[in-house]
Design brief:
The protein has 393 residues and is of the alpha+beta class. The protein has twelve helices and eleven strands. The strands form four sheets. The chain has a three-stranded antiparallel beta sheet with strand order 2-1-11. A three-stranded antiparallel beta sheet has the order 4-3-8.
Length: 393
């Protein structure tokens, strides 16, 4: 008797409870529900870390107004902010924490520790232990609580990102703007993970002529009897019409359009956070786009940090300033060309140019040099070639 309808299901098979799937582990891996934190999204966290990393790479200079232009000042305060803000952090990690906390929560709180009227430490306060409480009777008054103790805003450094409309003293993060896109990215990631781990991706299907629905043990016996040979290199010899083989192409992530969806969502994240899309792996690198990113987004965040740090300064003619020159993407040749052009017009000393390139100063390169043609108007008559007798020519 021939084998017929081998994979035919019994018509008497009872209906399975469809709810059971949604309670299974497979469904938990595929479905995403509830609120997705910004810190849970790899794309958002990558973008925020990139911004925080660049801002924290810049040196913080204490500047003073001068009649001939602002000059850099080096004292205990400048060293505190730029080198060692506290006993367990460097400037890099301190500024990184401020920027990252601002972008994730909208606010970052730092407590200045004073000794004899002098600021000796800048201590970051954990977000989960701080709270901003507004005065319901006065829209321009609020306090910041830390460990259940209230502090006036003037006693702390309050870094604010994206001020609220109704409470301009309090910042907001990008949670609302990125809520949908982070949910989509997490859903796409879970779908991809579930798809790649799926066991139901056969590349070969066999249609068997059978009248009965065999159990797993009988199927194993059939496979052992007809589909396996001692010598794997020999072809299968089967009665005609018993088994039909068909090769199928499993679905890919491209077929599910997940790649396009992820690309669009990454571009949306980049647009909202103000970073170039290639930082998140979308598109190609552009030097001009990178330099524009430093000029706009990075310096915008840096302005918030440096202007808040200015509250530490007592003198009216001083201020903190970030130096972004090291962040720009310029080649060594471009830097040398710029330095040479400035030296030629007596705008830059050669030792200052060596400092740009990270070279130590040279005692013989501290003087200003100019070509003979570059003179003040009142000194033009001092050129020897203009005073020569025409008969000597």
């Amino acid at each position: 008797m021939g084998i017929k309808n081998f994979f035919k299901r019994s018509e008497d098979e009872p209906n399975k409870n469809k709810v059971g799937y949604f309670l299974s582990e497979d469904a938990k891996d595929l479905l995403v529900s509830g609120y997705t934190r910004l810190s849970d999204s790899p794309e958002v966290l990558t973008a925020i870390n990139q911004i925080a990393d660049l801002v924290s790479n810049m040196t913080i200079q204490l500047m003073k107004n001068d009649e001939k232009g602002d000059i850099r000042v080096k004292n205990d305060l400048s060293r505190l902010v730029d080198i060692k803000p506290n006993s367990y952090q460097t400037r890099k990690s301190f500024i990184f924490w401020i920027v990252k906390t601002m972008m994730l929560n909208g606010n970052a709180i730092v407590m200045p520790i004073t000794r004899n009227g002098k600021v000796v430490e800048l201590r970051p306060l954990p977000t989960n232990k701080t709270q901003i409480i507004a005065d319901s009777a006065d829209d321009f008054n609020y306090v910041i609580t830390y460990n259940s103790k209230a502090y006036a805003p003037n006693d702390l450094l309050h870094f604010v990102l994206n001020p609220k409309d109704d409470k301009p003293f309090e910042g907001t993060s990008y949670k609302v703007s990125l809520s949908d896109v982070t949910h989509n990215l997490k859903q796409a990631s879970n779908t991809k993970r579930s798809f790649m781990a799926s066991e139901y991706m056969p590349s070969l299907v066999m249609f068997v002529d059978s009248d009965v629905d065999l159990d797993e043990e009988e199927r194993e016996k059939f496979e052992e009897k007809y589909l396996k040979r001692k010598d794997k290199n020999k072809p299968l010899l089967l009665p005609e019409g018993m088994i039909k083989f068909e090769t199928i192409k499993p679905l890919t992530l491209e077929d599910l359009a997940i790649h396009e969806s992820i690309k669009i969502d990454k571009q949306t994240v980049a647009s909202i956070l103000g970073i170039p899309p290639f930082v998140l792996g979308v598109g190609t690198y552009s030097k001009d786009e990178w330099n524009s990113f430093v000029n706009t987004k990075i310096m915008s965040i840096a302005q918030i940090v440096q202007q808040t740090l200015n509250t530490l300064i007592v003198e009216d003619d001083m201020y903190f300033n970030f130096n972004p020159r090291s962040l720009y993407n310029y080649s060594l040749v471009e830097q040398v060309q710029a330095i040479t052009a400035l030296v030629k017009v007596n705008t830059l000393r050669r030792n200052e140019g060596r400092n740009w390139l990270g070279l130590p100063p040279d005692a013989e390169m501290d003087d200003l040099i100019v070509l003979e043609n570059y003179l003040l108007q009142q000194d033009l008559s001092k050129q020897g070639k203009l005073n020569q007798n025409i008969n000597d020519l």
